Amino acid sequence: MTTKTTKPLTRDYESRLSELSPFEIKNELIALAEKKARQSTATFLNAGRGNPNWVAADAREAFFILGPWALDECRRQGTREPGIAGIPVADDGIADRLEKYLADHSDTEGGRLLNRLFRMATSELGCDRDSLAYEWAEGIVGDQYPTPLRILTNTEKIVRPYLAQEMGRRDPGKGADYDLFATEGGTAAMCYIFDSLQVNHLVNKGDHIALMTPIFTPYMEIPELDRYQFNVTDISANAVDTDGYHDWVYPKEELDKLRDPKIKLLCLINPSNPPSYRLSEENMKQLVDIVRKDNPNLMIVTDDVYGTFARDFESLMYVLPHNTLCVYSFSKYFGATGWRLAVIALHRKNIFDKLIAALPEEKKKDLDNRYGSLTTEPRGIRFIDRMVADSRAVALNHTAGLSTPQQIQMSLFAGKCLLDSADVYRHAMQYIISERLDALWSTTGFKLLPDPTRAGYYSEIDLMVWARKFYGEQFADWLKENHNPLDAVMRLSTETAVVLLNGSGFNGPEWSVRASLANLDRDAYLKIGSAIRQILDGYHAEFLDKK
Fold it and tell me: Sign of the CA dihedral 123, 66, 176, 420?
């Protein structure tokens, strides 16, 4: 629920608002935009948050088709009033019963998906027939704690090759050396990672880390918390090229900051959020060179939730496998933010485990005490399993793990794409985004340069670039001197009923705005583009009046 503003839109007020996260400012912008829409013929358009307006319907239908069969498996073990049944049993006939049931649902998209996935998983992915059928029955009913704790056995066998396929390794076998930890969305993964890095003495209070910016705001806010107080180095892609345009490539001199071995950890979103560009080939090669020559112990956390929207995407998890921990969320690609589905992926041979093994004896003993309740050999616990334990304060490790119905839905999303050998779904998603992106820019009058690294899930538009291009340096200087950068998104809300986020809140260019291309239909972006141009032209009219 949004709250209405009662404060005047003064420069002082805007300046105080600019200290907040853009996601906190968003509520104020929504209230202003809704007020404008009520008082005029303007249409309220909120492109501030990246929640998709689509769903992967067939994988959801598959989930709901499984439910009645799983309940039948429960009732096979006995029923009593009122509405009580047993729990699924892994007997030798469970797979046969599942296949018979699915044959009766071959007239639906979800049923066909289940049929094909069951056959592929058992013939190509190493899943035992009865084991997979039992995991689906027990998992969707949710009658047991997740076992194994990190991720269900067959779910991992399905999700692991999905990651390999979608994150840049088309041969599913390339993902075999990675372990997965299923988490409650990418946000939970972030919390678990930062927590475990610190409690395992890999990054300590006051240590140096680097962020590749612009970046999702929480990556900037977490290191500032009193618990962490990391020294943060920005690796910035905000510079403009010789023609005055943003290409969002990280300059060589920016990446070279990582050659300093005092920087222990690098965090990035690839493709970025915002401005939604994947790492260039030059940037990838330079990162490899940095790790190999100057900073071999650099720990890398890459958040690749938007990777499926980029063409020719390749994750750092496969380029620098021993240094990189990958977070992948299913939320955007499948329209599943409410499901809270993500995985942390880590190569079995990795720098995190190596650095823990090299800790001083005093710190090893500290960790022996922390994890000693789990095993008589706590030093043998790998970092990914430490994250699982830490996610439940170690003492509750036995109840860790993502809920089993969530894991079944995750496996169905992953399986849907494994079956899609022609990448029909991927191409459809990319087309939806690119069509909206073109619509947005077409009415701004601005020039969107072709770029193969663009994913386009968001678009970051730097008004200062276009102020200079359209109206010259004198006007751009006047705009900076006479208005707070937050004024642009405030005016969009109050004058056009459009909600965008301020790019400065992501450590982007000060006068940039971020539009999500995921949550509105194409025609809405035509109006948003016009609104952005209207605001810029309004500033220029004001400038002319005051000359």
Answer: positive
CA atoms within 13 A on the CB side of 369: 6
Contact status, residue 267 vs residue 210, Cβ threshold 8 Å: yes
In angstroms, the CA 176 to CA 311 distance is 24
CB 345 within 8 A of CB 387: no
- Give the full edge-to-edge strand order of the sheet including 299-303: 178-183, 342-347, 324-329, 299-303, 263-269, 208-213, 231-236
Domains of the chain by residue range:
11-41+425-546, 57-144, 156-417
pLDDT at 6: 36
Q: Over the stretch 458-496, which tens digit does the pLDDT of each residue have? A: 999 999 999 999 999 999 999 999 999 999 999 999 999
- Other beta carbons less than 10 A from residue 290's beta carbon: 21
pLDDT digits (tens, 9 = 90+) for 102-152: 999 999 999 999 999 999 999 999 999 999 999 999 999 999 999 999 999
Question: Radius of gyration of the chain from Cα atoms?
Answer: 25
Q: Using CA atoms, how far apart are residues 193 and 191, in angstroms rounded to an integer?
A: 6
> pLDDT tens digits, residue range 389-403?
999 999 999 999 999
Q: Which CATH number fits domain 57-144: 1.10.20.110, 1.10.10.10, 2.30.40.10, 1.25.40.10?
A: 1.10.20.110
Task: Single out the residue of 315, 345, 407, 15 nearest to residue 189, CA to CA.
Answer: 345
Q: For the structural domain made of 11-41+425-546, what CATH number should be given?
A: 3.90.1150.10
Question: Token digits for 287?
Answer: 């990162």
Where b means 16+ CB within 10 Å and e means fewer, 147-160 reads eebbbbebbbbbbb
| Cα–Cα dist 330/78, whole Å | 37
pLDDT digits (tens, 9 = 90+) for 295-339: 999 999 999 999 999 999 999 999 999 999 999 999 999 999 999
State the Cα–Cα distance between residues 435 and 53, nearest whole angstrom.
14
User: Which tokens is 213 given?
Assistant: 């910016």
Q: Structure pTM?
A: 0.94
Distance between CA atoms of 270 and 71, rounded to whole angstroms?
A: 41
